[in-house]
Write a structure and sequence with these properties.
Number of helices: 1
Distance between the termini: 60 Å
Mean pLDDT: 76
Radius of gyration: 25 Å
Largest sheet: 3 strands, antiparallel
Order of helices and strands: HEEE
Structural class: alpha+beta
Strand content: 15-25%
Helix content: 40-55%
């Protein structure tokens, strides 16, 4: 009986690092998913801002290196290149 318990503990000890590695992978995936949601929300905000300015037919917007959302849209019957720079939220760690 003691032998079976020792074997069970040894097996459990070997599997714990696998569970810890899986948990750290899930945390990274959650952070990436959170970043995607934030990115999608910002793109939607840029689209709303363009719509309020009278643009229609707004193409998918892509975020450039400097944070500007760019794409094409139609205004007054003309297709033009548009860009929106959303204000950045203050970083809670630096304030």
């Amino acid at each position: 009986m003691v032998r079976i318990m020792l074997i069970g503990l040894a097996v459990a000890g070997m599997t714990l690092p696998a569970f810890a590695d899986e948990a750290s992978t899930n945390t990274g995936a959650a952070a990436a998913f959170s970043a995607e949601l934030s990115n999608a929300a910002n793109a939607q905000q840029a689209r709303i801002q363009l719509a309020h300015q009278g643009y229609t037919g707004i193409s998918p917007l892509y975020r450039g290196e400097q944070g500007r959302w760019t794409g094409t849209a139609v205004k007054d019957g003309k297709t033009v290149i548009v860009g929106v720079l959303l204000p950045q939220a203050p970083d809670a760690l630096t304030n």
